[in-house]
Amino acid sequence: GNASEHTLKQAFAEKVVDEYAERYRSKLSGFCIDLGEVADIPRIHSAIRRHIPNAVISFSDGLRIPLNNNNPSYEDFTFGKPFELDQYKASDCVNYPAVTSTEATANGYFINRGYKSLGHV
């Protein structure tokens, strides 16, 4: 009833994500966390790595274009996705900058503070 935003973020990471990572560790190879802008990214990252050290991880923080490494040291690939498919076809030009931003990298990786994040659309 009276939980703060911080408490809810902490609970999601430590109770939900941690439990899933522990329970399904041998069946999961990665996590794509949507709505990362309202998550405790460091705690979620730690919960996943504690049980699945080699998992690939990505967070959506609401920023789509241009693709970028928005969570250096916490994500392995960008959370690229097309704009809403009920409004645009995946091939619509509105999604083109996501592709061209990845093509503009030297090798497909976005580097931020020395951390790589593989471009993904």
Structural description of this entry:
Strand 3 and strand 4 (115-118) form a beta hairpin. The chain has a two-stranded parallel ribbon. A two-stranded antiparallel ribbon has the order 3-4. It contains three helices and four strands, in the order H-E-H-E-H-E-E. It is α+β, with helices and mostly antiparallel strands. Helix content is 31%, strand content 13%. Helix 1 (5-23) runs parallel beside helix 2 (41-51).
Query: Roughly how much helix do the residues carry, as a percent range?
Result: 25-40%
Rg (C-alpha, Å): 16 Å
User: From the helix content, strand content and strand pairing, which structural class follows?
Assistant: alpha+beta
- Poorly predicted runs: none
Q: Kindly state the mean pLDDT as a whole number?
A: 87
Q: Provide the β-strand percentage band.
A: 5-15%
